[in-house]
# Entry
Amino acid sequence: MKKLIFAICFLLTTTIFSQDSDEVQIKSIYDTALSNGKAYDWLNHISNQIGGRLSGSIQAQQAVDYTKKELEGLGLDKVWLQPVMVPKWTRGAPEFAYFESKPGVTTNIPICALGGSVRTPLGGLKANVVEVKSIDDLAILGKQRLEGRIVFFNRPMEATNINTFSSYSGCVDQRYAGAKEAAKYGAVGVIVRSMNLRLDDLPHTGAMSYGDTPVNERIPAAAISTNGADLLSVSLTLNPDINFYFKQSCQQYDDVQSYNVIGEITGSKYPNEIMVVGGHLDSWDLGDGSHDDGAGSVQSMDVLRLLKETGYKPKRTIRVVLFMNEENGLRGGSKYAEIAKNKKENHVFALESDSGGFSPRGFSFDCTEENFNKVQEWKPLFEPYLIHMFVKGFAGADIGPLKDSQMVLAGLRPDSQRYFDHHHAANDTFEHVNKRELELGAATMASLVYLFDKYGVIKTTKIIKG
# Structure
Protein backbone atom coordinates (compact mmCIF):
# COMPACT_ATOMS: atom_id res chain seq x y z
CA MET A 1 0.00 0.00 0.00
CA LYS A 2 2.85 2.41 0.85
CA LYS A 3 4.42 1.73 -2.56
CA LEU A 4 1.09 2.44 -4.27
CA ILE A 5 0.63 5.71 -2.37
CA PHE A 6 4.20 6.73 -3.22
CA ALA A 7 3.63 5.96 -6.91
CA ILE A 8 0.44 8.01 -6.99
CA CYS A 9 2.10 10.94 -5.22
CA PHE A 10 5.08 10.77 -7.57
CA LEU A 11 2.79 10.79 -10.61
CA LEU A 12 0.76 13.75 -9.31
CA THR A 13 3.90 15.69 -8.42
CA THR A 14 5.41 15.03 -11.86
CA THR A 15 2.20 16.13 -13.60
CA ILE A 16 1.93 19.32 -11.57
CA PHE A 17 5.60 20.10 -12.12
CA SER A 18 5.15 19.55 -15.85
CA GLN A 19 2.12 21.86 -15.93
CA ASP A 20 4.03 24.50 -13.96
CA SER A 21 7.03 24.32 -16.31
CA ASP A 22 4.71 24.64 -19.32
CA GLU A 23 3.06 27.70 -17.82
CA VAL A 24 6.48 29.27 -17.21
CA GLN A 25 7.69 28.55 -20.74
CA ILE A 26 4.51 29.79 -22.40
CA LYS A 27 4.51 32.96 -20.30
CA SER A 28 8.11 33.54 -21.34
CA ILE A 29 7.10 33.18 -24.99
CA TYR A 30 4.26 35.70 -24.67
CA ASP A 31 6.35 38.13 -22.63
CA THR A 32 9.15 38.03 -25.21
CA ALA A 33 6.77 38.45 -28.15
CA LEU A 34 5.04 41.46 -26.59
CA SER A 35 8.15 43.19 -25.28
CA ASN A 36 10.72 42.24 -27.90
CA GLY A 37 8.85 41.03 -30.97
CA LYS A 38 10.28 41.15 -34.47
CA ALA A 39 7.21 40.27 -36.54
CA TYR A 40 5.91 43.84 -36.83
CA ASP A 41 9.27 45.23 -38.00
CA TRP A 42 9.64 42.45 -40.56
CA LEU A 43 6.12 43.08 -41.83
CA ASN A 44 6.80 46.81 -42.05
CA HIS A 45 9.67 46.16 -44.42
CA ILE A 46 7.86 43.54 -46.52
CA SER A 47 4.75 45.72 -46.85
CA ASN A 48 6.17 49.21 -47.18
CA GLN A 49 9.57 48.62 -48.77
CA ILE A 50 8.56 45.76 -51.08
CA GLY A 51 4.77 45.85 -51.45
CA GLY A 52 2.40 43.46 -53.22
CA ARG A 53 4.11 40.19 -54.15
CA LEU A 54 2.41 38.44 -57.06
CA SER A 55 4.18 35.16 -57.78
CA GLY A 56 6.72 35.61 -60.55
CA SER A 57 7.10 39.34 -59.89
CA ILE A 58 10.18 41.34 -58.97
CA GLN A 59 8.56 42.10 -55.60
CA ALA A 60 8.12 38.39 -54.87
CA GLN A 61 11.83 37.83 -55.49
CA GLN A 62 12.70 40.79 -53.29
CA ALA A 63 10.64 39.23 -50.48
CA VAL A 64 12.47 35.93 -50.97
CA ASP A 65 15.84 37.66 -50.69
CA TYR A 66 14.81 39.72 -47.66
CA THR A 67 13.31 36.91 -45.61
CA LYS A 68 16.21 34.57 -46.36
CA LYS A 69 18.63 37.23 -45.08
CA GLU A 70 16.57 37.80 -41.92
CA LEU A 71 16.35 34.07 -41.18
CA GLU A 72 20.09 33.76 -41.61
CA GLY A 73 20.48 36.55 -39.05
CA LEU A 74 18.60 34.50 -36.44
CA GLY A 75 21.41 31.97 -36.19
CA LEU A 76 19.33 28.99 -37.30
CA ASP A 77 21.05 25.70 -38.04
CA LYS A 78 20.17 25.86 -41.71
CA VAL A 79 18.54 28.32 -44.15
CA TRP A 80 17.96 27.58 -47.83
CA LEU A 81 15.85 28.32 -50.90
CA GLN A 82 13.75 25.61 -52.51
CA PRO A 83 13.18 26.25 -56.25
CA VAL A 84 9.62 26.10 -57.57
CA MET A 85 8.15 27.05 -60.94
CA VAL A 86 5.26 29.48 -60.58
CA PRO A 87 2.75 31.19 -62.89
CA LYS A 88 3.36 34.79 -63.91
CA TRP A 89 0.29 36.96 -64.49
CA THR A 90 0.27 40.75 -64.66
CA ARG A 91 -2.63 43.17 -64.23
CA GLY A 92 -1.44 45.85 -66.63
CA ALA A 93 -3.06 49.29 -66.76
CA PRO A 94 -5.81 50.10 -64.22
CA GLU A 95 -9.17 48.61 -65.15
CA PHE A 96 -12.18 50.77 -65.98
CA ALA A 97 -15.92 50.04 -66.03
CA TYR A 98 -19.34 51.65 -66.24
CA PHE A 99 -22.92 50.68 -66.95
CA GLU A 100 -25.05 52.50 -69.48
CA SER A 101 -28.72 52.93 -68.61
CA LYS A 102 -29.43 54.63 -71.95
CA PRO A 103 -27.24 56.00 -74.75
CA GLY A 104 -24.82 58.54 -73.30
CA VAL A 105 -25.97 58.06 -69.66
CA THR A 106 -23.29 56.13 -67.77
CA THR A 107 -22.34 55.35 -64.17
CA ASN A 108 -18.78 54.34 -63.29
CA ILE A 109 -18.28 51.16 -61.26
CA PRO A 110 -15.12 50.20 -59.27
CA ILE A 111 -13.65 47.08 -60.90
CA CYS A 112 -10.54 44.90 -60.97
CA ALA A 113 -9.52 41.91 -63.06
CA LEU A 114 -9.62 38.49 -61.42
CA GLY A 115 -6.23 36.80 -61.16
CA GLY A 116 -5.58 34.66 -64.21
CA SER A 117 -8.18 36.35 -66.38
CA VAL A 118 -7.62 37.14 -70.04
CA ARG A 119 -7.77 40.73 -71.21
CA THR A 120 -10.70 42.40 -72.89
CA PRO A 121 -10.41 43.55 -76.53
CA LEU A 122 -8.20 46.65 -76.85
CA GLY A 123 -11.21 48.95 -76.97
CA GLY A 124 -12.88 47.20 -74.05
CA LEU A 125 -15.97 44.99 -73.94
CA LYS A 126 -19.55 46.27 -73.97
CA ALA A 127 -22.66 44.11 -73.85
CA ASN A 128 -26.04 43.63 -72.23
CA VAL A 129 -25.67 42.35 -68.68
CA VAL A 130 -27.63 39.50 -67.08
CA GLU A 131 -27.71 39.05 -63.27
CA VAL A 132 -27.58 35.60 -61.70
CA LYS A 133 -27.21 34.41 -58.12
CA SER A 134 -25.35 31.17 -58.72
CA ILE A 135 -23.64 28.99 -61.30
CA ASP A 136 -26.76 26.79 -61.28
CA ASP A 137 -28.76 29.73 -62.65
CA LEU A 138 -26.79 29.54 -65.90
CA ALA A 139 -28.41 26.25 -66.89
CA ILE A 140 -31.85 27.65 -66.07
CA LEU A 141 -31.37 30.69 -68.30
CA GLY A 142 -29.63 28.71 -71.04
CA LYS A 143 -27.77 29.80 -74.15
CA GLN A 144 -30.71 31.76 -75.51
CA ARG A 145 -30.58 34.23 -72.59
CA LEU A 146 -26.80 34.31 -72.09
CA GLU A 147 -25.15 34.19 -75.50
CA GLY A 148 -23.40 37.46 -76.37
CA ARG A 149 -24.02 38.89 -72.88
CA ILE A 150 -21.99 39.68 -69.78
CA VAL A 151 -22.96 37.52 -66.80
CA PHE A 152 -23.15 39.32 -63.45
CA PHE A 153 -22.75 36.92 -60.49
CA ASN A 154 -24.28 38.64 -57.48
CA ARG A 155 -24.51 36.14 -54.64
CA PRO A 156 -23.36 37.94 -51.45
CA MET A 157 -21.48 36.42 -48.56
CA GLU A 158 -23.88 35.14 -45.90
CA ALA A 159 -23.99 37.78 -43.14
CA THR A 160 -25.40 35.52 -40.42
CA ASN A 161 -22.36 33.24 -40.18
CA ILE A 162 -20.14 34.09 -37.23
CA ASN A 163 -17.31 32.21 -38.93
CA THR A 164 -16.82 34.48 -41.95
CA PHE A 165 -14.72 31.86 -43.71
CA SER A 166 -17.88 29.77 -44.00
CA SER A 167 -19.51 32.72 -45.76
CA TYR A 168 -16.54 32.98 -48.10
CA SER A 169 -16.65 29.29 -48.93
CA GLY A 170 -20.36 29.59 -49.63
CA CYS A 171 -19.96 31.93 -52.59
CA VAL A 172 -16.37 31.82 -53.86
CA ASP A 173 -17.25 29.27 -56.55
CA GLN A 174 -18.77 32.05 -58.69
CA ARG A 175 -15.45 33.89 -58.65
CA TYR A 176 -13.30 30.83 -59.28
CA ALA A 177 -15.38 28.99 -61.89
CA GLY A 178 -17.91 31.57 -63.09
CA ALA A 179 -16.11 32.47 -66.31
CA LYS A 180 -15.49 28.84 -67.25
CA GLU A 181 -19.16 27.96 -66.79
CA ALA A 182 -20.60 31.11 -68.39
CA ALA A 183 -18.49 30.61 -71.51
CA LYS A 184 -20.28 27.30 -72.12
CA TYR A 185 -23.48 29.26 -72.76
CA GLY A 186 -21.90 31.80 -75.09
CA ALA A 187 -21.36 34.63 -72.58
CA VAL A 188 -18.70 37.15 -73.63
CA GLY A 189 -17.59 38.26 -70.16
CA VAL A 190 -18.16 37.82 -66.43
CA ILE A 191 -18.33 40.28 -63.54
CA VAL A 192 -18.55 39.05 -59.95
CA ARG A 193 -19.64 40.67 -56.70
CA SER A 194 -16.57 41.04 -54.49
CA MET A 195 -16.10 38.53 -51.67
CA ASN A 196 -16.66 41.10 -48.93
CA LEU A 197 -19.18 41.40 -46.10
CA ARG A 198 -18.81 45.17 -45.94
CA LEU A 199 -20.47 47.62 -48.33
CA ASP A 200 -17.71 49.74 -49.86
CA ASP A 201 -16.17 50.84 -53.15
CA LEU A 202 -13.19 48.47 -53.11
CA PRO A 203 -13.21 45.61 -55.61
CA HIS A 204 -11.57 42.39 -54.37
CA THR A 205 -9.49 40.31 -56.74
CA GLY A 206 -8.71 36.59 -56.34
CA ALA A 207 -7.91 33.49 -58.32
CA MET A 208 -10.12 32.18 -61.08
CA SER A 209 -9.73 29.20 -63.40
CA TYR A 210 -10.73 28.40 -66.96
CA GLY A 211 -10.22 24.67 -66.41
CA ASP A 212 -9.76 22.95 -69.76
CA THR A 213 -11.44 25.75 -71.75
CA PRO A 214 -9.45 26.33 -74.97
CA VAL A 215 -7.50 29.60 -74.92
CA ASN A 216 -9.48 31.08 -77.81
CA GLU A 217 -12.76 30.47 -75.96
CA ARG A 218 -11.79 32.11 -72.67
CA ILE A 219 -13.73 35.20 -71.63
CA PRO A 220 -12.54 38.10 -69.42
CA ALA A 221 -13.53 38.04 -65.75
CA ALA A 222 -13.50 40.84 -63.19
CA ALA A 223 -14.82 41.72 -59.74
CA ILE A 224 -16.85 44.81 -58.91
CA SER A 225 -17.22 46.41 -55.48
CA THR A 226 -20.12 45.53 -53.19
CA ASN A 227 -21.58 49.03 -53.51
CA GLY A 228 -21.23 48.76 -57.26
CA ALA A 229 -22.92 45.35 -57.27
CA ASP A 230 -25.89 46.65 -55.27
CA LEU A 231 -26.25 49.69 -57.52
CA LEU A 232 -26.09 47.60 -60.68
CA SER A 233 -28.59 45.09 -59.31
CA VAL A 234 -31.14 47.78 -58.40
CA SER A 235 -30.62 49.46 -61.77
CA LEU A 236 -31.27 46.17 -63.59
CA THR A 237 -34.64 45.80 -61.85
CA LEU A 238 -35.61 49.18 -63.27
CA ASN A 239 -34.06 48.61 -66.68
CA PRO A 240 -33.14 45.05 -67.72
CA ASP A 241 -31.61 46.33 -70.96
CA ILE A 242 -28.62 47.97 -69.28
CA ASN A 243 -25.28 47.59 -71.06
CA PHE A 244 -22.07 47.05 -69.11
CA TYR A 245 -18.63 48.12 -70.30
CA PHE A 246 -15.24 47.15 -68.89
CA LYS A 247 -11.66 47.25 -70.05
CA GLN A 248 -8.66 45.38 -68.66
CA SER A 249 -5.22 44.64 -70.08
CA CYS A 250 -4.01 41.73 -67.94
CA GLN A 251 -1.73 39.08 -69.42
CA GLN A 252 -0.55 35.54 -68.65
CA TYR A 253 3.10 34.63 -69.30
CA ASP A 254 5.09 31.41 -69.22
CA ASP A 255 5.96 30.01 -65.80
CA VAL A 256 9.04 31.42 -64.07
CA GLN A 257 11.27 30.15 -61.29
CA SER A 258 10.74 31.30 -57.74
CA TYR A 259 11.45 29.83 -54.30
CA ASN A 260 10.10 28.64 -50.99
CA VAL A 261 12.21 30.15 -48.20
CA ILE A 262 13.11 27.60 -45.50
CA GLY A 263 14.97 27.75 -42.20
CA GLU A 264 15.27 25.20 -39.41
CA ILE A 265 16.45 24.42 -35.92
CA THR A 266 17.70 20.84 -35.80
CA GLY A 267 16.09 18.69 -33.11
CA SER A 268 18.29 17.69 -30.17
CA LYS A 269 16.68 14.30 -29.57
CA TYR A 270 14.54 13.41 -32.61
CA PRO A 271 16.14 15.31 -35.51
CA ASN A 272 14.36 13.18 -38.10
CA GLU A 273 10.92 14.19 -36.81
CA ILE A 274 10.07 17.44 -38.59
CA MET A 275 7.62 20.09 -37.45
CA VAL A 276 6.65 22.84 -39.91
CA VAL A 277 5.31 26.32 -39.24
CA GLY A 278 4.57 28.62 -42.14
CA GLY A 279 2.59 31.10 -44.20
CA HIS A 280 2.69 32.17 -47.84
CA LEU A 281 5.07 34.88 -48.97
CA ASP A 282 3.23 35.80 -52.18
CA SER A 283 0.21 38.11 -52.22
CA TRP A 284 -2.11 39.88 -54.61
CA ASP A 285 -1.06 43.20 -56.06
CA LEU A 286 -3.83 45.67 -55.19
CA GLY A 287 -2.55 46.29 -51.65
CA ASP A 288 0.69 45.23 -50.00
CA GLY A 289 -0.53 41.87 -48.69
CA SER A 290 -0.03 42.69 -45.01
CA HIS A 291 -2.83 40.48 -43.70
CA ASP A 292 -2.80 37.99 -46.58
CA ASP A 293 -0.28 36.68 -45.88
CA GLY A 294 2.57 38.89 -44.80
CA ALA A 295 1.27 38.49 -41.25
CA GLY A 296 1.43 34.69 -41.33
CA SER A 297 4.90 34.75 -42.86
CA VAL A 298 6.45 37.00 -40.21
CA GLN A 299 4.60 35.24 -37.38
CA SER A 300 6.06 31.94 -38.57
CA MET A 301 9.55 33.43 -38.70
CA ASP A 302 9.13 34.76 -35.18
CA VAL A 303 8.11 31.34 -33.84
CA LEU A 304 11.66 30.09 -34.29
CA ARG A 305 13.13 33.31 -32.91
CA LEU A 306 10.88 33.18 -29.83
CA LEU A 307 11.90 29.61 -29.05
CA LYS A 308 15.58 30.59 -29.31
CA GLU A 309 15.15 33.83 -27.33
CA THR A 310 13.44 31.99 -24.45
CA GLY A 311 16.21 29.40 -24.29
CA TYR A 312 14.09 26.46 -25.42
CA LYS A 313 16.01 23.72 -27.23
CA PRO A 314 13.62 21.71 -29.41
CA LYS A 315 13.66 17.93 -29.30
CA ARG A 316 12.42 17.74 -32.87
CA THR A 317 13.51 19.64 -35.96
CA ILE A 318 11.40 22.78 -36.29
CA ARG A 319 11.25 24.25 -39.76
CA VAL A 320 9.79 27.56 -40.94
CA VAL A 321 8.57 27.47 -44.53
CA LEU A 322 7.54 30.63 -46.39
CA PHE A 323 5.56 29.20 -49.27
CA MET A 324 5.45 30.81 -52.71
CA ASN A 325 2.34 30.94 -54.94
CA GLU A 326 -0.50 30.07 -52.60
CA GLU A 327 -2.75 32.69 -54.13
CA ASN A 328 -2.89 31.47 -57.71
CA GLY A 329 -1.59 27.95 -57.91
CA LEU A 330 -0.41 26.43 -54.59
CA ARG A 331 2.83 25.52 -56.33
CA GLY A 332 4.99 26.17 -53.27
CA GLY A 333 3.01 23.94 -50.93
CA SER A 334 2.77 21.18 -53.52
CA LYS A 335 6.50 21.32 -54.34
CA TYR A 336 7.48 21.25 -50.67
CA ALA A 337 5.33 18.15 -50.06
CA GLU A 338 6.65 16.48 -53.22
CA ILE A 339 10.28 16.94 -52.19
CA ALA A 340 9.54 15.84 -48.63
CA LYS A 341 7.97 12.65 -49.94
CA ASN A 342 10.84 11.97 -52.34
CA LYS A 343 13.34 12.43 -49.49
CA LYS A 344 11.18 10.25 -47.23
CA GLU A 345 11.18 12.99 -44.59
CA ASN A 346 9.16 12.23 -41.48
CA HIS A 347 6.83 15.20 -40.96
CA VAL A 348 4.83 14.85 -37.75
CA PHE A 349 3.23 18.29 -37.32
CA ALA A 350 2.49 21.38 -39.41
CA LEU A 351 0.99 24.74 -38.41
CA GLU A 352 -0.12 27.44 -40.85
CA SER A 353 -1.10 31.06 -40.36
CA ASP A 354 -3.13 32.40 -43.29
CA SER A 355 -6.15 34.11 -41.76
CA GLY A 356 -4.78 37.58 -41.10
CA GLY A 357 -2.90 39.27 -38.28
CA PHE A 358 -5.93 39.89 -36.08
CA SER A 359 -6.34 38.83 -32.42
CA PRO A 360 -5.76 35.07 -32.11
CA ARG A 361 -8.71 33.05 -30.86
CA GLY A 362 -7.39 29.49 -31.15
CA PHE A 363 -6.68 26.76 -33.68
CA SER A 364 -8.38 24.36 -36.02
CA PHE A 365 -6.98 20.84 -36.22
CA ASP A 366 -6.94 18.18 -38.88
CA CYS A 367 -5.83 15.14 -36.91
CA THR A 368 -6.87 11.94 -35.18
CA GLU A 369 -9.29 11.97 -32.28
CA GLU A 370 -6.48 10.91 -29.93
CA ASN A 371 -4.37 13.94 -30.82
CA PHE A 372 -7.36 16.27 -30.68
CA ASN A 373 -8.20 15.03 -27.17
CA LYS A 374 -4.60 15.67 -26.22
CA VAL A 375 -4.88 19.27 -27.42
CA GLN A 376 -8.00 19.76 -25.30
CA GLU A 377 -5.91 19.01 -22.20
CA TRP A 378 -3.73 22.01 -23.03
CA LYS A 379 -6.60 24.51 -23.11
CA PRO A 380 -6.00 25.74 -19.52
CA LEU A 381 -2.48 26.79 -20.56
CA PHE A 382 -3.92 29.12 -23.23
CA GLU A 383 -6.90 30.52 -21.36
CA PRO A 384 -4.89 33.27 -19.57
CA TYR A 385 -4.15 34.65 -23.06
CA LEU A 386 -7.83 34.54 -24.10
CA ILE A 387 -7.20 31.64 -26.50
CA HIS A 388 -10.28 29.46 -26.21
CA MET A 389 -11.18 27.96 -29.60
CA PHE A 390 -9.86 24.46 -30.31
CA VAL A 391 -11.90 22.86 -33.08
CA LYS A 392 -11.51 20.18 -35.71
CA GLY A 393 -11.50 21.48 -39.27
CA PHE A 394 -9.45 22.84 -42.16
CA ALA A 395 -5.87 23.69 -41.20
CA GLY A 396 -4.36 25.43 -44.22
CA ALA A 397 -3.90 25.24 -47.99
CA ASP A 398 -0.08 25.16 -48.11
CA ILE A 399 0.33 22.43 -45.49
CA GLY A 400 -2.56 20.41 -46.91
CA PRO A 401 -0.40 18.46 -49.42
CA LEU A 402 1.66 17.11 -46.46
CA LYS A 403 -1.37 15.41 -44.93
CA ASP A 404 -1.25 11.76 -43.97
CA SER A 405 -3.07 9.70 -41.38
CA GLN A 406 -0.37 10.16 -38.73
CA MET A 407 0.28 13.91 -38.97
CA VAL A 408 -1.27 16.71 -36.98
CA LEU A 409 -2.16 19.71 -39.14
CA ALA A 410 -3.17 22.94 -37.40
CA GLY A 411 -4.27 26.39 -38.49
CA LEU A 412 -4.09 29.58 -36.40
CA ARG A 413 -7.60 31.04 -36.10
CA PRO A 414 -7.67 34.79 -35.43
CA ASP A 415 -10.89 36.75 -35.05
CA SER A 416 -12.30 36.77 -38.57
CA GLN A 417 -14.87 39.57 -38.46
CA ARG A 418 -12.69 42.17 -40.24
CA TYR A 419 -10.64 39.85 -42.42
CA PHE A 420 -12.78 40.03 -45.56
CA ASP A 421 -12.93 43.83 -45.36
CA HIS A 422 -9.31 43.64 -46.59
CA HIS A 423 -8.93 40.26 -48.29
CA HIS A 424 -7.46 40.64 -51.83
CA ALA A 425 -8.29 44.37 -51.89
CA ALA A 426 -6.38 47.65 -52.09
CA ASN A 427 -6.81 48.21 -48.33
CA ASP A 428 -4.86 45.08 -47.34
CA THR A 429 -2.10 47.34 -46.12
CA PHE A 430 0.27 47.66 -43.18
CA GLU A 431 -1.71 50.42 -41.46
CA HIS A 432 -4.55 47.95 -40.87
CA VAL A 433 -2.37 45.54 -38.86
CA ASN A 434 -2.30 46.01 -35.09
CA LYS A 435 1.19 45.40 -33.66
CA ARG A 436 -0.02 43.78 -30.44
CA GLU A 437 -2.49 41.49 -32.18
CA LEU A 438 0.21 40.35 -34.61
CA GLU A 439 2.61 39.60 -31.75
CA LEU A 440 -0.04 37.72 -29.79
CA GLY A 441 -0.56 35.51 -32.82
CA ALA A 442 3.14 34.73 -33.09
CA ALA A 443 3.30 33.86 -29.39
CA THR A 444 0.22 31.64 -29.64
CA MET A 445 1.76 29.75 -32.54
CA ALA A 446 5.09 29.36 -30.75
CA SER A 447 3.32 28.01 -27.67
CA LEU A 448 1.53 25.30 -29.63
CA VAL A 449 4.75 24.35 -31.42
CA TYR A 450 6.48 24.12 -28.04
CA LEU A 451 3.83 21.79 -26.62
CA PHE A 452 3.80 19.45 -29.60
CA ASP A 453 7.59 19.38 -29.62
CA LYS A 454 7.78 18.60 -25.92
CA TYR A 455 5.07 15.93 -25.80
CA GLY A 456 5.11 14.61 -29.36
CA VAL A 457 2.32 13.36 -31.61
CA ILE A 458 0.27 10.28 -30.78
CA LYS A 459 0.79 7.67 -33.46
CA THR A 460 -1.98 5.19 -34.17
CA THR A 461 -1.25 1.59 -35.06
CA LYS A 462 -3.48 -0.34 -37.42
CA ILE A 463 -4.26 -3.85 -36.21
CA ILE A 464 -4.60 -6.28 -39.10
CA LYS A 465 -6.71 -9.26 -38.22
CA GLY A 466 -5.64 -12.51 -39.89
About this structure: Residues 92-249 form a domain with the Glucose Oxidase; domain 1 fold (CATH 3.50.30.30).
